[in-house]
Amino acid sequence: MIRSDYLFTSESVAEGHPDKICDRISDTILDAFLTVNPAARVAVETLATTNRIIIAGEVRGADQISHEDIEQLARAVVRDLGYEQSGFHWADCRVEILLHAQSPDIAQGVDALGNKDEGAGDQGLMFGFACRETPELMPAPIQLAHTVLRKMAEARRSGRVPQFGPDAKSQMTLRYVDGAPVCATSVVVSTQHAPELSQDEVRELVRPFVLETLPEGWMCPEADFYVNPTGKFVIGGPEGDAGLTGRKIIVDTYGGAAPHGGGAFSGKDPTKVDRSAAYAARYLAKNVVAAGLAERCLIQLAYAIGVSKPLSVYVDMQHTGEVDPARLSAVLQELMDLSPRGIREHLGLSRPIYARTSAYGHFGRAPEADGGFSWERTDLADELRAAF
Q1: Which of 297, 276, 291 is nearest to 347 (CA)?
Q2: Catalytic residue IDs
Q3: Strands 180-193, 225-227: parallel, antiparallel or unpaired by DSSP?
């Protein structure tokens, strides 16, 4: 039985959250490599803690990018995010770089040689999802959680609310009636703030951003509006809690409203199907919903390392579909080559477009003129409608 009346919660974290700092550094390094060589191979992990950043991983194809260049990229990210704190400062934090060449054992499975097409960079399963809860065809809880933090960050960066610090988290719990969201039952926002502010003062600074994010009449009861529930949040960022690349994968995708294959995105070039195939699955699911073939669509892709074609393409319209799912799976594979090379070329992924994805979700964003968020296009909708 499908539940139609329930509460569902999703969380988001701001660009200055310790894990998001690491995602941003990793993706900034990836962009630097792709700028020099669109065929570069990159898998970069970042760790951030009190006044220290450690960058590790495997790279290939841009030898002219030095460790000194990478260090400056990391410092520039930290500066842009606003960290000039005694425990984490862009100018004097220690940066350690532990990058090495990509394993030849992996490379031989990925590289296209002779009659062999480019293979997947790893085994795994990836999910894409879309639904009609928001104009962006995203689940409402995660989209709203992202939006309130993005608005707060814009106010901090512009100087309109300088009392906010870079580190913040949000959480939205929505009530669903007949399968559709109707209101918020609780809202949680924790934000780093200037030391002179009281908890009540921070609450009133946060309130307008929540009110302008939620649809009219959706605000939760005052007793369920939680701002900095511990009472104080002055020490933030990596000084307060260590950060790691790829530790916010549910925040990056659908807020728990859809399955996740487990692979992180940030710091990985598009030969890594953890990233590129998850983008492809979202792209196909979004086009299915945009075409009116279903109210909700979940797509799973599975790959084996070194093998170009997916092992399976599973489509689940969650009892909202207007067409046969097996036929839909076949049509989707006719409309898009789901090999790593096919995905990369169809979506134009070999470009430096990744640093911008590192906060506020990889999905539910507007496609950009330079190819950013190309997987959010709905340019297959007409073809899908015509096929049925």
Answers
A1: 276
A2: 17, 19-20, 45, 58, 169, 233, 241-242, 247-248, 268, 272, 274
A3: parallel
pLDDT in tens, 335-364: 999 999 999 999 999 999 999 999 999 999
Task: State how far the Cα of 39 lies from the Cα of 291, in Å rounded to an integer.
Answer: 33
In this prediction the pTM is: 0.94
CA distances to 63, 69, 273 from 33, rounded to whole Å, are 9, 11, 18
**Distance separating alpha carbons of residues 32 and 54, to the nearest angstrom:** 18
Return the amino acid letter for 319.
Answer: H
Q: How far is the CA of 87 from the CAs of 25, 26, 75, 191, 235, in angstroms?
A: 18, 21, 14, 17, 9
- Residue 32 contacts by C-beta under 8 Å, 6 or more apart in sequence? 62, 65, 69, 70, 73, 352
Beta strands at 312-316 and 296-303: parallel, antiparallel or unpaired: antiparallel
Q: What is the pLDDT of residues 251-272, one digit of tens each?
A: 999 999 999 999 999 999 999 9
3-class SS at 258? coil
Whether residue 223 is predicted with pLDDT greater than 80 in this model: the reply is: yes
Q: Please state the separation of Cα 383 from the chain's center in Å.
A: 28
Please list the residues that pair with 129 across neighbouring strands.
298
Is the Cβ–Cβ distance between 313 and 277 less than 8 Å? no
Element holding 50 (H helix, E strand): none
At 355, list the tokens: 């640093």
